[in-house]
Here is the input.
Amino acid sequence: MAKKQISIWQEIVKGLWRENPVLATLLGLCPTLAVTNTAVNGLAMGLATSFVLLSSSLFISSLRNFIPHQVRIASYIVIIATFVTVADRFLAGFFPAISQSLGPYVPLIVVNCLILGRQEAFSSKNKISRSLLDGIGMGLGFSLVLIALGMVRELLGSGSIFGITLLGEWFEPWMVMILPPGAFLTLGFFIAIANWINDRRATA
Amino acid sequence: MTQHTSGSGKMVLVLTLITALSGAILAAWDSYTAPKITYHREQALLVAISQVLPAHDSTRTVVLNGQTFYEAFAGDSLVGVGFQALGNGFQGQIRMMLGMTPDLETITGLEILEQVETPGLGTKIAHDPSQRSDPEWFTKQFNGLLPSPELTVIKNATPTHSNEIQAITGATISSQAVVRILNQQIESARQAFRTGSEVVHG
Amino acid sequence: MSIPSPASSKGKSKLKEPENLLILASSPHLHTTTSTQSIMWQVVLALSPAATMAIYYFRWPAVVIILTSVIAAVLTEAVINRLKGETLTITDGSAVITGLLLALTLPPTFSIGGTILGAVVAIGIGKQLFGGLGYNIFNPALLGRAFLQASFPIGMTTWSTPATLAGSAVDGVSTATPLGLYKFEHALTGYADLFVGNVGGSLGETSALAILIGGLYLLIRRFADWRIPVSYLGGVVIIGGIFWAFAPNQFPDPVFHLLSGGLILGAFFMATDMVTSPITHLATWIYGIGMALILVIIRLFGGLPEGVMYSILLMNAVTPLLNRYTRPKIFGEVQS
Amino acid sequence: MNLFLIFISAAVVNNFVLSYFLGICPFVGVSRKVSSAVSMGLAVIFVMAISSVFTWLIYHLILVPFNMEILEYVSFILVIASLVQLVEMFIRKVSKPLYDTLGIYLPLITTNCAILGLALFSVLREYNFIESLVFGLGAGAGFTLALVIMAGIREELDMAPVPKYFQGAAITMIVAGALALAFMGFAGLISI
Amino acid sequence: MNTATFSRGVHPHEYKELTSHKPIEKLPAPESVFIPLQQHIGKPCEPLVAKGDTVTTGQKIGDAEGLVTAPVHASISGVVKSIGHFPHPLGGRVEMIHIQNGSTGASSDSEILLDRPSDWEKASPEELIRVVREAGIVGMGGAGFPAHVKLNPPPDKPIDAFILNGCECEPYLTADHRMMVENTDEILLGMAIICKILGKCKGYIGIEKNKSDAIQRMQERVEALHYEFAVVPLEVKYPQGAEKMLVQSVLKRKVPAGGLPLDVGVVVHNVGTTLAIHDAIINGKPVTQRVVTVTGDGLRDPKNILAPVGAPFQDLLTYCGETMSETKQVFMGGPMMGLAQYDLSVPLVKTTSGIVSLHQEPVGAIRQMPCIQCGNCVSACPMNLIPTRLARYTQNQRYTELVDWGVFNCIECGSCAFVCPSSIPLVQWIRVGKNKARQGQKSAS
Ligand SMILES: Cc1cc2nc3c(=O)[nH]c(=O)nc-3n(C[C@H](O)[C@H](O)[C@H](O)COP(=O)(O)O)c2cc1C
Ligand SMILES: Cc1cc2nc3c(=O)[nH]c(=O)nc-3n(C[C@H](O)[C@H](O)[C@H](O)COP(=O)(O)O)c2cc1C
Ligand SMILES: Cc1cc2nc3c(=O)[nH]c(=O)nc-3n(C[C@H](O)[C@H](O)[C@H](O)COP(=O)(O)O)c2cc1C
Ligand SMILES: Cc1cc2nc3c(=O)[nH]c(=O)nc-3n(C[C@H](O)[C@H](O)[C@H](O)CO)c2cc1C
Ligand code: SF4
Ligand code: SF4
Ligand code: SF4
Ligand code: SF4
Ligand code: FES
Here is the structure.
């Protein structure tokens, strides 16, 4: 491929907006919806996912010439599952409260299409350094959206952000925001807003 | 696919290697984290036991008729018995630690260990943020209650008897579920504790 | 433009002729005089007995909630019309119905802020996001109410005692609805009170009599499909009756089912919303019986005392499927 | 009766898609047409049923006896991936029409978190063998229900003037939110 | 009275009182007539005369080879002024023969008659069918399908019933009504001829109850003349006159979807057609004139008129007191299926049953709203279709679904659009959809 290499900076930034896993490519939606009832959960999930993404990108990109094509998916899955277990046990060992509130959604990172998708689309074809940058960008983009969703939902659903009460006694929290419907509705609005911004940028 | 038959040996090899590597990493990680996880789990249990039982300086675990009890001692005297109660709430299982006097007649404390009730409604059985001064008012109501005859739930009124507790507004079902589970399990605990043959664990 | 729009071709084809300008339109050239707009306003009229009873029983709070909800619904519609750059659609009356029906399903003590939120969700999300009048999948008023129910579970289940001619205004004494009493305390309420509406409950749902007056008007004018109330209420009587026949001590009788909660209001005014109910006759029967089944299951076995709102929303959700798979046999078509 | 409750709970009360957020990607991706939604749903029910059985066997007959719970995720995902592969090959062999309706959806299912989620929840809730199987069937039925309803609605919305920025994924999320609100009506069905 | 009918359909206001009591009047001979070479379904005619030729009433002036076609005849005596393309009431410009009234010698009363058997009862069906063809008789109920084709069904489709379509279910129109009252015996004889042509077959007369005088008169004459025809009073409901509905109402037989009445052994003819068959066989007269209702709220003196084919609409309207000062809309046919006209020089054709001129602004067009899924159109559609779906599929270019949902079964009766509270031009969308779907099918094959 003689395609011009994009710059390091662009490699990272693309994951933040243009190829944002949640808003642009709609990958990894399950954890996005499931754990964003508070900002802290969003942050923790974002970090855990980024960790798995980065370490498996690193691994897979270094083994890319070694893994035969036919067994690549199986190999990726094993590698990803390994790092997910590492992350899960780490949370359980050091942050038991967060581990409990994320529940089975940490192990579900194994099947997060975002991670497998990046391996398939990027790490298996690119140098280690590039894969790392891609992983950083994607992980960051994913985490930021999760945190933003968590903030909105926590603010409206509990009147606080990161556990700090922001809206006073006068505000009666909209409980629905921390329940499943609130997750879907908020994400729907996020995607629409992203569409709107893209449209503005395209016409600007 | 067929032209790669020569590679099938390599395929198996690579996959095996990767799996082995994975196993190795995980084994190492397990040995590092497992103690911590176990520690947290036990710690949580211990904290719960110490909270639901009267002041004590040692505990021991006994299994009677297959049911686990935590006995609390102040010096040599048995001051309380704790056991877990488990059953269906509004959305899913509620797991509680209940402390009682040794005769299993008076409640000394209640802790909700696990519940998956609706946030903002049923979760108030464990933590009610709308009562800022006392978010755990629901479980505290149980201290000193006499579940004989059965515990009962009353709505929209202040309890007047020693077997009554007040329901959480908007979460009557969860409140009733807690009481229903407790009534059942106190009954079976009495059976087990009074008649059971003892197996002592450390 | 691959498809000529009839509307635009109509405008263009006013050809100038020497002697006169003749209008060219496609047949038929005769139309019924009933317009969508007039239907909508007549539904508002049909709701007025229920609204009047609400005000009679719950006094000022009812007036405030009804006005707030209607105004918020209409304003939301107007603002979204503006944002979308369309002509204002608020005179067609549909937003007024949505606001009014939302208000009639709220408890008398509900907050003003919550009422506004409900109306904004009903019109903004429930109706306009789907494309506006005629395109919404879910009943907007009920979607707004479901949002409120999930947001303010306590506020939405706090009821006050109705005032009567003798009694003074509502004194904020909280009470329980007949269904709540039944579910949580296993107590029945008298039929007479249920029928005239002298019980706790949402603003507009308590008086079966007032709702029936408006509901029958809708049926007689054919603005509502008679199959819907018949199948829904009939289904509840039959399904509820079966449970009652097997265990009369455990389950309430069918008359209690009919008269309590929002069933009558829902069956005549909400399940019948033409936009969100099926169009084929077979689908309409399935729709009604499906609602009845869900309602009885929720009332008898669910965690909630009342299930009218959920039964309607759930059957709204399957209405596209029902319409699709119940295409009537075309005249002369042989069963294959 | 208990088995019945497990089934109802997984299918409607705690619907996998609408209240556990599992399998959202296929829920968004394969809900454009009712016909494909039905096929996908059947494929998921099938895979869920067999994978719940196999993961149960792996966990209780291998991992627990040999104290290898740490390999839970690795082994589950391997089992699921290979099962899906085997089922696909099998279907392709026995029936071409079946393959055309179900087979093409099978590869999508490997990376569907609902399948792994099912196995994890089974372990977490300490279900026995039969309960796991019923749980799998219920979860699959619930997934199919949500998917087919969504597809019916989306076919309708394709012909509606949904505001520009909400077309596509955004309105799908809004509809899912509305469906989740409606499914809340089933809350508490299992508590009694 | 237990009256027969079909399910669904609509009840538009009738407006028939304007003309239903008015005896048929003969139009004074117009100055010119424009005779379209196509007034029927099928192949257009070739002109048999040239510019400048003198023609006589009843003279065949156009014909074509082929089965599905019908000749045209001069409706007045005079000179062929030109042969060219002029506006046609069905839209567009069509080749017509322009005849100027009697400027050359021939007496205006002289008339060319058809060559026909002297005793129809002894003649063979083939001979009678030939006369029907030569007379240029086409369906006068509106469709314009050549009558000789209908009367000659394929041998594998035995016919056992003939229905005289006397419904006239369209509002405003009373032409068939007047003919049934004034020409009862001729119509009955026409039916007898048709039944003979078709072989063993029973005759039925379907008339809506709002024409009680016609029902009574038919009944009386059937008895007096000892015919074995059954007079069947029908409920007043649109589109009772559509042949599939009529067959259902009268005989309780369902014409299969996509099929014709002859698939269930039935032939249906309009009153005008039947009268024309009588005139051709008994009097040797080809179709050179027809009865037409000229009516509407804009006319001072609405009438039923016997007018020559080719007479301009203008002449007919002027004769009935139309001033055109405030006319908003004129259409050919009734208001439910009629075609709006913008050029009133168009000629009366064999299928023109009425000309309606309205001064009121038509309701509807202005207050179009989104479809609210009320289902009124579904309850109205006699074909049991879902009109709102058909319109929506057309709007979204979903032609596969459109065909699946039966768009080709639509008879374009307009019942759906009539009842739509949102004034959606459903029929128009359906027509667009049919065209697009047909194009799609063609390009696919
Ligand atoms: C979505 C939803 C979730 C609910 N969750 C709970 C719950 O977790 N616990 C509970 O007791 N009630 C819950 N409820 C409310 C109950 O169904 C019931 O209305 C309530 O227990 C009655 O309490 P009250 O009599 O104090 O109003 C929920 C209701 C809804 C709509
Ligand atoms: C409350 C009510 C109940 C009715 N129930 C029936 C019924 O069960 N069966 C029936 O054929 N007509 C019933 N009708 C009569 C209908 O108004 C009318 O006959 C029917 O809708 C005509 O069918 P259509 O909708 O196809 O025009 C009922 C009317 C009302 C107002
Ligand atoms: C909606 C509709 C309404 C019709 N109404 C009548 C009618 O009232 N009278 C009539 O003679 N033909 C009517 N027709 C035409 C008949 O279907 C049929 O073509 C005609 O009766 C056949 O007779 P003809 O060939 O002599 O015209 C109608 C057709 C349609 C599609
Ligand atoms: C008989 C009838 C019942 C209606 N019921 C409702 C209703 O329950 N909720 C609502 O928002 N609108 C209702 N509408 C109004 C209208 O259909 C509604 O605004 C549309 O759903 C919005 O597209 C009703 C209209 C009619 C004619
Ligand atoms: S688990 Fe699968 S379905 Fe769920 S979000 Fe991740 S990728 Fe999507
Ligand atoms: S033309 Fe009109 S009136 Fe005459 S039959 Fe046909 S529909 Fe009835
Ligand atoms: S769809 Fe066709 S047949 Fe049905 S009512 Fe409309 S026009 Fe008549
Ligand atoms: S009658 Fe008009 S508004 Fe009613 S369903 Fe049919 S098209 Fe829609
Ligand atoms: S993208 Fe998640 S399953 Fe396909």
